[in-house]
Design a protein that fits this description.
The chain is globular, with a radius of gyration of 14 Å. By secondary structure, it is mostly helical. The chain has 6 helices and no strands. The two termini are 19 Å apart. It has one domain: Four Helix Bundle (Hemerythrin (Met), subunit A), CATH 1.20.120.
Length: 130
């Protein structure tokens, strides 16, 4: 598979980042955390397509940010230790929108921190994808 145009994936990632900001501003902190997660998940999958030239994992593993940031992908985009730990921390939050019984309510300060780190991580990938 040759390198493909991932511009639609990038655009979708940025839309989720915008949604994370908008829901944060509205006080919907758990939704903001979810959209931050989605933004990173999609930019990671775009990176799989672009750099690794293969489809990213699907199913449960396809939501695990630290698994998507595999050793092969690390060769192309280097995140610092703080960002890698953030991927591990953020991974369970995709469950919130899918399983209400597991719903966890984010605080304003936590959602703000997640949003800031999500912006940083997405920026790291954007720099390499452009």
């Amino acid at each position: 598979m040759k390198k493909i145009d991932v511009s639609e994936w990038i655009e979708r990632s940025l839309k989720h980042l915008d949604s994370a900001k908008a829901t944060y501003e509205k006080g919907l902190y758990d939704d903001s955390v979810f959209h931050s997660h989605q933004s990173i998940e999609i930019i990671l999958k775009a990176s799989w397509l672009y750099f690794l030239r293969k489809m990213p994992p699907t199913g449960r593993r396809g939501h695990m940010l630290h698994a998507l940031y595999s050793n092969a992908l690390r060769k192309h985009v280097r995140l610092n230790k703080r960002h890698v730990e953030f991927l591990i921390e953020l991974t369970p939050h995709y469950l919130n929108s899918r399983y209400p019984e597991l719903l966890w309510k984010a605080t304003s300060s936590y959602a703000k921190s997640v949003l800031k780190k999500a912006e940083e991580v997405v920026k790291c990938f954007l720099e390499k994808l452009s």
